[in-house]
């Protein structure tokens, strides 16, 4: 077995311990050891290349004479042709042309094709076309090479004309024309050429299927796939990628499972498909399966997808392991397009590990890549370092919508609303996402009227709101019980939106339920073609919050019958319903169902609901015992719950007193606890204790927060605190409302 040792690499301010094989050349990491440009040349070949590079033609001729083998003229031609091919394929096209011109052996069509291919591969089409025209004879390879070069350069009309004039065509020529048309986004003509092909091979079918799959025309790709005589692994992989590209991940995975000989491209295609569609956990699990069962080594594309998956799941430790694997394999040495660096910057920014993200940006990223700027800005916003985010924003060579909305969201997140509005004012292009960001930011800062102003202004500028825009507004309307606004928004959607998605329908149901319009909520809920746990929870919570326990439990039973899995919020709603209605047995039964059957760990709020259920049934001792067995038995909210359910009778006074004193030890300024204990002492004629506690409140400066209510009249919100007197305008409105109701 290979020996392994641990090596600690300092990276971005943190250390990563990675297992490194002793036979891995760590000196090549990050390109610290230059790779030879001439890996396949002999000494004489290298010397010849030097002479040709420096235009020492006389020395080159002499050296070539020495290098040429004896024997027939044909063998000398073959040798010179092989050198032309080697030089041109290695990127030394000018040297290859000099060799082509001075070679003493006779040049044949193969030699010409080698030189022509060199010009085409490096995109020098002018020289390629000149050489093509001067060729004494051409074969199908010559024509096909020139055809591919023109098509790859986007000169598709010239490529089509050349194809028509070809005196001889083989399956490779036909394939080149099909591929050229596909690459130039002319899929219809590509299909016509494909259909006219006298003979098709696997490459023909694969090119056409991939062409359809790559642009999301998966049904046409599937039709061809079903017609193909013998699909290979590449065909299956194209279909997997195509299905994932259009979001049909389940069908893509079904295709993947049917691939017999999976290679790294097949595995990577499915892993990437999971990642780009947000199935991050499935992507990681499939990678583990690949490692465990296939023996296939990951390539750079595999690890890039894993980096994004780790970012999506916030698996920072696993993300560092992925990065370490990239270091071990020296993948950043070959990061010619910067995709590895971009994926790592995105990953570390998502983790909030900004020193590592910044290190990668400073050392390995092209500083003109806008995506990397956006990732860093988002990362600094996420960790609350708005100063560095703004520095990057100002330093960015260009800015797109993501750049602007990221920094605007950052200002909203720390409450700097004016700065966010200032930036929005200077934003050069305001799309629906930018407007939604402004609306969301104002709502997050409890500025609902301003949010509505931006929504109306958005409509004035002709920007069509997103479903997300309406969802955010409905959430705010429901939280503040602004029913009139909610109805207006709902009516606007009905008139302007072609249809409702599930998220939007859920937000409308939730809004009506929170506003107490349960009949409207039920009407929309009953018309929904599909429901998820959020749909069911919205209805259950709506009934529970308005004291309709039986209706809440009926919806819960219907949810169970629909085989929708309840979650912790579902049980919190039904427990709350049981608490309000005093349903002791049903409440305890549901709590047991939650923990024992559905395996949901009870949270603080679930346990508070159980305490309320027990307390309202007069089971004070049971409530105290229940709390004693909980890990958060000293939590202020839990102690406040047992104190709150304690009645004025002597039986609960001792429990209330113990809980209240413990609560005041933990939270000495808790006004509600002081007031409730005072009231309990007064009810039980413990006036001395009541007097001492009220004196203590005065000494400590404890004041009870007054109760608050609000009402919307004529489109304005009027807020009242306990003890306030009505202003004349509000008093007049209330009197007029009272008169109209009585009338």
TrEMBL record:
One of its GO terms (molecular function) is RNA binding. GO terms for biological process: RNA modification; system development. Coiled coil: none annotated. PPR repeats lie at residues 108-142, 170-200, 201-231, 232-266, 431-465, 501-531, 532-566. The keyword Repeat applies. SUPFAM superfamilies: TPR-like. The chain crosses the membrane at residues 408-427, 462-483. Keywords: Membrane, Repeat, Transmembrane, Transmembrane helix. NCBIfam families: PPR (TIGR00756). This is Chlororespiratory reduction 4.
């Amino acid at each position: 077995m290979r020996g392994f040792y641990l090596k600690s690499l300092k990276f971005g301010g943190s250390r990563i311990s990675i297992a490194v094989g002793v036979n891995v050349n760590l000196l090549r990491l990050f390109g610290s050891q230059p790779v030879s440009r001439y890996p396949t040349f002999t000494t004489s070949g290298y010397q010849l290349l030097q002479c040709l590079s420096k235009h020492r033609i006389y020395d080159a001729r002499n050296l070539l004479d020495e290098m040429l083998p004896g024997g027939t003229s044909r063998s000398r031609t073959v040798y010179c042709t092989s050198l032309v091919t080697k030089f041109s394929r290695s990127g030394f096209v000018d040297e290859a042309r000099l060799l082509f011109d001075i070679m003493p052996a006779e040049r044949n069509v193969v030699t010409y094709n080698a030189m022509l291919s060199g010009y085409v591969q490096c995109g020098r089409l002018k020289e390629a076309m000149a050489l093509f025209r001067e060729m004494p004879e051409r074969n199908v390879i010559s024509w096909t090479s020139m055809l591919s070069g023109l098509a790859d350069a986007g000169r598709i009309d010239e490529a089509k004309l050349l194809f028509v004039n070809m005196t001889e065509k083989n399956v490779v020529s036909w394939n080149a024309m099909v591929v050229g048309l596909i690459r130039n986004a002319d899929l219809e003509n590509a299909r016509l050429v494909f259909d006219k092909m006298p003979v098709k091979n696997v490459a023909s079918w694969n090119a056409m299927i991939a062409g359809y799959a790559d642009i999301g025309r998966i049904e046409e790709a599937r039709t061809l796939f079903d017609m193909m005589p013998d699909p290979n692994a590449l065909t299956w992989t194209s279909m997997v990628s195509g299905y994932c590209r259009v979001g049909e991940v389940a069908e893509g995975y079904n295709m993947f499972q049917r691939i017999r000989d999976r290679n790294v491209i097949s595995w990577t295609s499915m892993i990437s498909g999971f990642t780009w569609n947000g199935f991050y956990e499935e992507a990681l699990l499939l990678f583990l399966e690949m490692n465990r069962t296939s023996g296939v080594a990951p390539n750079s594309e595999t690890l890039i997808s894993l980096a994004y998956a780790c970012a999506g799941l916030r698996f920072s430790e696993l993300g560092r392991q992925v990065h370490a694997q990239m270091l071990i394999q020296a993948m950043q040495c070959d990061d010619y397009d910067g995709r590895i660096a971009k994926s790592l910057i995105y990953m570390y920014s998502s983790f909030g590990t900004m020193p590592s993200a910044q290190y990668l940006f400073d050392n390995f990223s092209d500083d003109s890549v806008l995506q990397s700027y956006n990732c860093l800005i988002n990362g600094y916003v996420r960790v609350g370092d708005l100063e560095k985010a703004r520095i990057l924003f100002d330093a960015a060579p260009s800015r797109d919508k993501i750049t602007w909305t990221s920094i605007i969201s950052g200002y909203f997140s720390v409450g700097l609303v004016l700065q966010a509005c200032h930036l929005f004012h200077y934003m050069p292009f305001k799309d629906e996402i930018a407007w939604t960001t402004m609306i969301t930011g104002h709502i997050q800062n409890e500025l609902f009227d301003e949010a509505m102003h931006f929504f109306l202004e958005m409509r004035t500028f002709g920007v069509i709101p997103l479903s997300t825009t309406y969802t955010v507004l409905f959430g705010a309307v429901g939280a503040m019980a602004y029913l009139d606004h909610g109805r207006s928004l709902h009516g606007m959607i009905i008139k302007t939106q072609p249809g409702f998605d599930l998220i939007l329908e859920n937000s409308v149901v939730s809004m009506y339920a929170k506003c107490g319009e349960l009949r409207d909520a039920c009407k929309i809920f009953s018309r929904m073609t599909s429901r998820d746990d959020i749909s069911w929870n919205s209805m259950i919570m709506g009934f529970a919050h308005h004291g309709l326990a039986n209706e809440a439990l009926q919806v819960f039973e219907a949810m169970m019958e629909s085989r929708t899995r309840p979650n912790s919020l579902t049980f919190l709603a039904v427990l709350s319903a049981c608490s309000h209605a005093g349903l002791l047995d049903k409440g305890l039964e549901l709590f047991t169902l939650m923990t024992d059957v559905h395996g949901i760990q009870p949270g603080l709020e679930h346990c508070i609901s159980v305490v309320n259920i027990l307390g309202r049934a007069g089971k004070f001792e049971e409530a105290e015992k229940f709390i004693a067995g909980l890990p958060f038995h000293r939590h202020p909210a839990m102690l406040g719950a047992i104190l709150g359910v304690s009645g004025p009778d002597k039986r609960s006074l001792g429990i209330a007193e113990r809980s209240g004193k413990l609560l005041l030890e933990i939270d000495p300024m808790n006004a509600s606890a002081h007031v409730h204990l005072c009231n309990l002492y007064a009810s039980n004629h413990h006036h001395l204790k009541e007097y001492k506690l009220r004196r203590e409140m005065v000494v400590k400066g404890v004041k009870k927060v007054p109760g608050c209510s609000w009402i919307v009249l004529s489109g304005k919100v009027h807020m009242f605190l306990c003890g306030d007197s009505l202003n004349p305008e509000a008093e007049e409105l209330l009197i007029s409302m009272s008169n109209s109701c009585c009338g």
